[in-house]
Amino acid sequence: MAKRFKVNKDRCIGCGACVQSCDGATRLGQDMKAEIISQEKLGECGGAKVCPFGAIEEIREEKKEK
Ligand code: SF4
């Protein structure tokens, strides 16, 4: 299954590096924090590695085992 990512808004400083280095994957929202517009594209660019500040995090799907 494809990896999914989220922006940790507490860590994002709005530097725009992700927007620059991976065009079409993220954009800066009204709060000047990154938001993901294409999970697929972001994954192709390296996902969490795209952000030098560690604000892009991989979502780990937890398996429910009982
Ligand atoms: S997610 Fe990272 S690279 Fe993108 S704007 Fe925020 S701090 Fe910068």
Notes on the structure:
With 66 residues, this protein is of the alpha+beta class. The protein has one domain (4-59): Alpha-Beta Plaits (2-Layer Sandwich). It contains two helices and four strands, in the order βαββαβ. It has helices at 17-21, 39-45; strands at residues 4-7, 26-28, 34-36, 56-59. The strands form two sheets. A two-stranded antiparallel ribbon has the order 1-4. The longest helix has 7 residues, at 39-45. The mean pLDDT is 94. It binds iron/sulfur cluster. Iron/sulfur cluster (SF4) is lined by residues 7, 12-18, 26, 34, 51, 53, 55-56.
The CATH topology: Alpha-Beta Plaits
Radius of gyration: 12 Å
Mass-distribution shape: globular
Q: Helix share of residues?
A: 10-25%
Please identify the top-level CATH class: Alpha Beta
Total number of strands:
4
**N to C succession of SSEs:** EHEEHE
Give the strand line-up of the largest sheet: 1-4
Cα distance spanning the termini:
22 Å
By DSSP (H or I, 4+ residues per run), the number of helices equals: 2
CATH architecture: 2-Layer Sandwich
Domains, number: 1
> Which secondary-structure class do the elements indicate?
alpha+beta
User: Which hetero compounds are present in the coordinates?
Assistant: iron/sulfur cluster
Instruction: Estimate the mean pLDDT confidence.
Output: 94
For the report, how would you describe the main beta sheet? 2 strands, antiparallel
Percent strand = 15-25%
Low-confidence stretches: none
